[in-house]
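Ticket #4471: structure output looks truncated?

Reporter: J.K.
Steps to reproduce: submitted the chain below (569 residues) through the standard prediction queue, then opened the result file.
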Amino acid sequence: MSSIAARLIPTWLRQYQLTALPTDLVAGLVVGVLVIPQSLGYAVLAGLPPVYGLYSAIVPVLVYAWLGSSNVQAVGPVAITAIMTASGLLPYAEQGTEQYALMASLLALMVGALLWIAGRLKLGWIMQFISRGVSAGFVSGAAVLIFVSQLKYLMAIPIAGSSLVGYLSTMQCYASQVHPLTLVIGIIAFVLLVANRYASQWVWRTWLSSSYAKWAERLFPLVLLGIAIVLSMLLHWNSLGVATIGRIPHGLPSFTLPHMTDLQEALKLLPTAGLMALIVFVSSSSVASTYARLRGESFDANHELTGLGLANLSGGLFQSFAVAGGFSRTAINADSGAKTPLASLVTVLVMIAALIAFSNALAPLPYALLGATIMASIIGLIDIATLKSAWQRDRLDGASFLAAFVGVLIFGLNTGLVIGLMVSFASLIWQSSKPHVAIVGQLGGTGHFRNINRHDVVTFDNLLMLRIDESLFFGNSESVHRRILNAMQQYPAAQEIILIMAAVNHIDLTAQEMLSTLNKELALQNKRLHFSFIKGPVMDIIGQTPLISELSGQVYLSTLDAVDALKDI
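Returned output as attached by the reporter:
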């Protein structure tokens, strides 16, 4: 029984130190209170009634706190999963309906299942193949779409579509129907929230101490929410045509089986679920690994996959849409002193209290305020700094950013992400197809050999030493062959050709055949081909092949051995 209990109780709880309790309680309360307006807004962004934002911050958060990989990561509804939910379900159900809500839970269940399966298969290494350019471009494009989509709440007009073109065209059609009072409320709220978020140095720090200013900045959205509710009640905004969220169902989320009329319906959602799972994993892992590194803790990508998977699986059964780790809420959680996942459990209690005790108090809240809240928070996700950095340091990463960004704006989230991934993989293949092949010489009287174009080195008339700085495969073998022949034309007197293989970690059949062909070409010119510094795994591959048995030269343990043996021939 003790072993079963040990498996059910997470390590962090078994080893919990009471000294962490005060800071965990404070962090949990702070995060819980501050994310209430965001959670409501993200539910609306997902096309769901606002209460579903609170639902999504209960069961998934509880499960991740119990089983997740990070001690401080705060999961819950986030902008990216919200808009991907809305985009994915748009063709299948009308937003705000019961069928739509059930399909949103089905989508969360599918995302969770895919993440859990990936965790069991130990596919955590997949995140290595999502470049920073693609992820930043996708998030930036999604942020622009989210920003534009929220204008419907500030202008009180229907805006629909899955791309920027769709949003702008519908906005143009209904521009004459803008509700003036709603627009004024939304603009004032947006300006105040942006000023609070990006100009806090002048808004708060000019008259408050640094610590008080920090708390004033964090609490301001909640204060603004309270002011909006009071003004809405006193001024009867609802009767003046201002849309409010209305009555929020009292009580906790119930166990509900997702909606699935047939298997074909679920299969249609599978591509969206797959892309959402990928984005959830990459974004959450980025946050979790960052804070693990800052805190001197280990990070297990496969454990993260399992935790996120079970969080979304359980959430899908309790009226949640897909959740992920949020950078802003995690930053607040860690900055507020969170030491363990107990802080997230306290956050869950705050959400439960909001649903049980304060649900009716939220009814007069204008949708315009929720839209302004999302718009103000989403601006920070438009990552221009990464684009500038990528364009300066690596144009291929910059191209991946632009491909994902423009693709999302023109074609929508799913297609935009696929375009970004395709450009990223294409750039990876292009880079691998053009490996660096350097002509090297001996550095002084040492055993070191360096590029002749970068160092003052000694060369030998009868030797041509070439260093191949990439594994050899079908995609780059022809390029390597061509570069070797070009180098030989530059040094026609060289009779001994040494290929330095120190950086070659793998060689496939095509590359072996290319080197065999090169060996025969050199033999016809009375020149010999030699290898140096072949790694063990590569030698295991080619040791019994014609490449070695028919080699005109020798295989040397080191380049220095090759030079000592051949320089005087």
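Triage note (M.O.): checked the attachment and the full token line is present. The beta strands are 75-76, 324-325, 437-442, 449-451, 463-468, 496-500, 528-532, 555-556.
Status: closed, working as intended.
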